[in-house]
């Protein structure tokens, strides 16, 4: 008998990733050898495992929750959208090719076979595998090619629990409708419900839960998870800083003016989780924006990664954000580019093999760093380490673009260019391809101090602030506590097969 569970959701962002992480952490604390799994992830937020494989950030954090080493089998298929109709495919941690929207019917068979084999491999090495679905299992228009929701459940014999977000409203109808629209064979896989993000009087909800159970053939509600304000998980969505961007993250023993960070919301942003660690730092206020005025007024402006650098650069220009970035740099106000954002700061961006663009093209960059970017066919993956001003930095890199120094023009107006991690700093402009650098506490606080010296000299990092890794661990434990305290864990174990 397969020992495992598929956590599906009534919608995207219903809380599947959080519930999966919580169950994983709870089982690990119970002494169970557990592993996370997501057959297919569509996200530009990814991570490099110790063996060099690229997987979704959510599965990487879920592996941490399990206390196991992240690996390619935990997210065998990763789709990285480059446009609304074109996705780069990562298969078992390595580049596989691209699929257009019209190619899904023929392209999915090979991906499905690889995903099922990866699940079976994980199951052979662990007591339990907790799988996370994608979107909703009720997307019957996609059912024939599905291998991440009910297609997976039926292929490997997994029971399915469906999570619903009550904070959005209509959760009972969403549960009932999810079951009702499915074919009988798929309905048989649905075993239970979990209500997520609840706040209010549980007594008012209880009668509805009992009626839901009656009207769905006795399928039980395993529990009601409360709205956890200070719990987050590396997002699959375009750019969501989650709870860390809340106002009370800017705290101190004495009230003070926060250091303001503006993160430009690029249409094809990737690895937006780079700014999570900035957003949790006490005394720092992060705003995700497309407003040139906010970009101009911030103490630090961040251009994050992009899965479509040339396209997002054109979008930047169409919104007047390019002028805001260039003008603040010329005024000596700090600008940081990370990966795709770093590439935008170059003098020229060249894509000869149409790696990220629909056709081969060369476009001018913002000209803030003396570099020229050329996209190579091969993707560079790695987990580099280095130092900056005496601070040790560990990071990861995922990119096709290769930056090379160019000769500075004779009319150079900026300060001398110096190395910065694997990139460059010129005056108030920094650029690097390293993701995750701000998760290093010493580097993060040292860099913010340098920024503050240029814009807000009185600002200082708050002494005694918690380490980023400690806060992530505490979050995972809070999720496990929520599972233990608010779900019927006896029924959950029986469902899993323990």
Automatic annotation (TrEMBL):
Pathway linked to the protein: Cofactor biosynthesis; adenosylcobalamin biosynthesis
Domain named CobB/CobQ-like glutamine amidotransferase: residues: 260-442
Ranges for domain CobQ/CobB/MinD/ParA nucleotide binding: 6-232
Catalytic residues as annotated in Swiss-Prot or TrEMBL: 339, 435
Molecular functions (GO terms): ABC-type vitamin B12 transporter activity; catalytic activity
Keywords: Cobalamin biosynthesis, Glutamine amidotransferase
GO biological process, alphabetically ordered: cobalamin biosynthetic process
Primary role: Catalyzes amidations at positions B, D, E, and G on adenosylcobyrinic A,C-diamide. NH(2) groups are provided by glutamine, and one molecule of ATP is hydrogenolyzed for each amidation.
Family: Belongs to the CobB/CobQ family. CobQ subfamily.
Protein known as: Cobyric acid synthase
Protein encoded by which gene: cobQ
């Amino acid at each position: 008998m397969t020992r495992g569970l598929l956590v599906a959701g009534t919608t995207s962002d219903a809380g599947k990733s959080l519930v999966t992480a919580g169950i994983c952490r709870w089982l690990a604390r119970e002494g169970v050898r557990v592993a996370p799994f997501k057959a297919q992830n569509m996200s530009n937020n990814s991570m490099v495992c110790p063996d060099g494989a690229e997987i979704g950030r959510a599965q990487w954090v879920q592996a941490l929750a399990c206390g196991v080493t992240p690996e390619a089998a935990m997210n065998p298929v990763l789709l990285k959208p480059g446009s609304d109709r074109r996705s780069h495919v990562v298969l078992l941690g390595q580049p596989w090719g691209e699929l257009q929207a019209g190619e899904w019917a023929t392209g999915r068979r090979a991906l499905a076979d690889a995903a099922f084999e990866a699940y079976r491999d994980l199951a052979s090495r662990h007591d339990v595998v907790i799988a996370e679905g994608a979107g909703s299992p009720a997307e019957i228009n996609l059912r024939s090619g599905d291998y991440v929701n009910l297609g997976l459940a039926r292929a490997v014999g997994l029971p399915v629990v469906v999570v619903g977000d009550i904070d959005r409203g209509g959760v009972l109808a969403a549960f009932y409708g999810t079951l009702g629209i499915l074919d009988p064979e798929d309905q048989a896989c649905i075993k239970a419900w979990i209500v997520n993000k609840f706040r209010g009087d549980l007594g008012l909800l209880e009668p509805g839960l009992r009626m839901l159970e009656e009207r769905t053939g006795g399928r039980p509600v395993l529990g009601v998870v409360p709205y956890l304000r200070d719990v987050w998980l590396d997002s699959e969505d375009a750019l969501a800083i989650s709870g860390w961007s809340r106002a009370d993250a800017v705290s101190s023993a004495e009230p003070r003016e926060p250091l303001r960070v503006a993160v430009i919301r690029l249409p094809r942003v990737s690895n937006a989780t780079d700014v999570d660690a900035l957003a949790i730092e006490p005394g720092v206020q992060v705003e995700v924006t497309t407003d040139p005025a906010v970009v101009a007024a911030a103490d630090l402006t961040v251009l994050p990664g992009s899965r479509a650098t040339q396209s997002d650069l054109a979008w930047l220009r169409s919104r007047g954000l390019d002028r805001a970035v260039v003008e603040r740099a010329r005024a000596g106000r700090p600008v940081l580019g990370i990966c795709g954002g770093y590439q935008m700061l170059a003098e020229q961006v060249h894509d000869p093999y149409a790696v990220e663009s629909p056709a081969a093209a060369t476009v001018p960059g913002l000209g803030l760093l003396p570099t020229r970017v050329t996209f190579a066919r091969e993707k560079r993956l790695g987990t580099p380490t280095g130092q900056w001003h005496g601070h040790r930095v560990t990071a990861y890199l995922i990119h096709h673009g290769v930056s090379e120094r160019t000769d500075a023009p004779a009319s150079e107006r900026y300060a001398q260019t110096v190395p910065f991690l694997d990139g460059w700093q010129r005056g108030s402009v920094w650029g690097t391809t390293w993701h995750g650098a701000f998760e290093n506490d010493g580097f993060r606080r040292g860099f913010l101090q340098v920024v503050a010296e240029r814009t807000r000299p009185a600002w200082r990092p708050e002494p005694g602030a918690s380490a980023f890794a400690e806060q992530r661990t505490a979050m995972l434990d809070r999720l496990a506590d929520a599972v233990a305290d608010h779900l019927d864990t006896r029924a959950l174990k029986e469902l899993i097969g323990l």
